[in-house]
Amino acid sequence: MDFFTVLLLILVGAGGGVALANTLRKRAGITDIQRDSVLLLERIEKVFKVVMAEGYFSEIYNYQDQKKILYLLNDPKKAMIIVKSKVLVGFDFAKIRFQTPVNGEKKLIIESFPEPEVLSIDTDYKFYDIQAGILNHFSGADYTQILDEAKQAMNERAMQSDLPKIANNQIQYMMYQLASSMGWQLQLPEADQKQLEALKAQAEADSRLSKQLNSGSIFEK
């Protein structure tokens, strides 16, 4: 046999060996999966953000995209996504504007207080009933768009809930208690100050009621 015949037999034998190995591997249920990940750190920033309330939300998000073939036939694709999220609402203290006390007065004056905002959304997505069209298939960009829209909808739903109000009440009363424990007086902007006074009155009423319940005097009459 000449050189080319021997080389051909070697290649055929090698190919047969690879095919046999793949067949045996499939039958044995062995798969060769490789995963690589690369961590990229873009930047680190110092922040002073405080979480005051958290909420848990579930939502069914329906996605549908209509596409016409030759401007005549509809070729829709659709998917149903169940979204579960944990939303943290709080404040960015870097946005607070303070007024410096004068003459050593122990009075904390806040000129401007930020609005509550969503600090983070931890979201879990599950796709159901994915139906692609004949030519209108799902792409990676479609899935990215779906997830972005679902997250934005969850953000809007959280801000329309009671979370911002709860966070606002929490931060005002916490700052009041902190200032009082240090012998300082807290002064907020007018609207916030009225809300704080209402919270203080409610807290004092709850405290009195709790003491009466514990002492049993409320049942003596």
Question: Topology of this structure?
Answer:
Blueprint: H1 3-27, E1 49-65, E2 68-69, E3 73-74, E4 77-92, E5 97-99, E6 107-112, E7 117-131, H2 140-159, H3 163-181, E8 185-187, H4 190-215
Parallel strand pairs: 6-8
Antiparallel strand pairs: 1-4, 2-3, 4-7, 5-6
Pfam families: DUF4230
Protein name: DUF4230 domain-containing protein
InterPro entries: DUF4230 (IPR025324)
Plain-language structure description:
The chain is of the alpha+beta class. It has one domain (46-213). The protein has helices spanning 3-27, 140-159, 163-181, 190-215; strands at 49-65, 68-69, 73-74, 77-92, 97-99, 107-112, 117-131, 185-187. The strands form three sheets. A three-stranded antiparallel β-sheet has the order 1-4-7. It has a three-stranded mixed β-sheet with strand order 5-6-8, covered by helices on one side. A two-stranded antiparallel ribbon has the order 2-3. A hairpin with a 3-residue loop joins β2 and β3 (73-74). α3 (163-181) packs across α4 (190-215). Pfam families: DUF4230. This is DUF4230 domain-containing protein. InterPro entries: DUF4230 (IPR025324).
